[in-house]
Amino acid sequence: MASESNAMILAQMAQTTLISRAQIDARIAEMGREISAEFEGSELIALCVLKGAVFFLTDLVRAMSMDVALDFIQVSSYGNQKYSSGVVTILKEPQLDMHGKSVLIVEDIIDSGLSMREVHRYIESRGAAKVKTATFLDKPKARKVEFQADYVGFSIDPMFVIGYGLDFAEKYRNIPEVQVLSE
Ligand code: PRP
To answer: Model's pTM, two decimal places?
Structure first.
């Protein structure tokens, strides 16, 4: 829940559309086709990185033309602190056996790259035969460690975005489009 000081800040913020719902739908339809073409015939697990990616996950798998199992992982949030150490704590572990399977890690956004790098390493250590990554948004200019996702919905400049799963103090996740939050 947003604190009182957050509520005061929010009252002064402007929200402007960056990526519309129609643009999101069109891009995810393309991604669903591309991902299905790559994984058709294999046993695929779509692994959602909680919490923000749940919106992208559910739209993406419904845009795919193949069967896909779902699993979930949650890693520590940096909050307002951004550590360069790359230490990421697993808060919730996936449940499915990944040995010999294909795993598509599904993120809402890659910023510093720390979370995705650690999740990728962790899933490889669980014996997956193939690990690929899909992110709804990518901020390549914000990287602290190198990481390139296999599938990127939209590449954006560093700016504070909300909606379609992305939050500010747990608010705004259910806005159906991507907006820029600015003063
Ligand atoms: C956000 C986002 C990614 C991560 C990206 O998660 O969902 O997991 O930060 O940042 P990075 O590339 O700098 O590691 P957050 O911890 O805010 O959790 P949430 O999805 O529950 O909002």
So the answer is: 0.91
